[in-house]
Sequence to fold (313 residues):
Amino acid sequence: MANITAAMVKELRDKTGAGMMDCKAALAETNGDIEAAVDWLRKKGLSKAAKKAGRVAAEGLIAVESAGRTAAIVEVNAETDFVARNDAFQAFAREAAKIALMGDGTVGGLEAAHFPGAQTTVRERLQELVATIGENMTLRRVAKLEVAKGVIASYVHNAVNEGLGKIGVLVALESAGDVTQLSALGRQIAMHIAALNPTAVDASGIDPQTVERESAILREKNAGKPDNVLGKIVESGLKSYYKEVTLLEQGFVHEPAKSVGQVLKEAEGRVGGPVKLVAFVRYALGEGIEKEETDFAAEVAAQSGVGKKLVQA
Fold:
């Protein structure tokens, strides 16, 4: 077996733009032959995929898969909304969510898992799609929720197909009560979460730095007041803030006069026992990704030479 050096890996990476580990694997498979390694990467779709990897991928799909007391949610990104309508892309997203049900809830674990019906991993299958469809794609994030007793309810907003859409929500309800009633309640709460986007289940889940920032704003807005008055203002202001951003204190979107916590308490009679909301996950497609703003009309004009003709005229 040839001795694969760092210089060889760098040379192959410069030629193809593929990842370092993929280049190393290609050289190992081809006994150090650079040109053969280039062909190996191209056959695997890794060379094409790497060349597209720098492009912003903020579209795509959120996929949700549930199995009663376990559920998973994944975000798979692409460059354009057109890809979200592609059957192969939808099939990949749906299968990735199913695989995530059995995984550890991490992107790395999901990428390394075997993709059913193929001699590839999930990551390799995605790279094949990149090469076939022609857009950069990423498996951006994944989450998994489980309860020992109760249900994991789910909801997909702007669904393009079963379990696939633009916003996905999972809600973990812990209870020994009636599963049918729990599922209906959980779906309503999941819809609420999709609409109002709470930050945490309750105040204990808010980042302490966020709380301090809110407190600082309140103190600055009320500077000059006596300390005892200022303290009460900050306390009252934080209570109002928690009602806005914590799930249990938000006004329930289906019954605004009641908080989500009150709705849960009232539901215990129908469910047949205590109900505890232990966790939730909400993914909105592309959130946090800085999208490049483009003027589509200007792009078309520039490519067709219309802009130049107008100037000359």
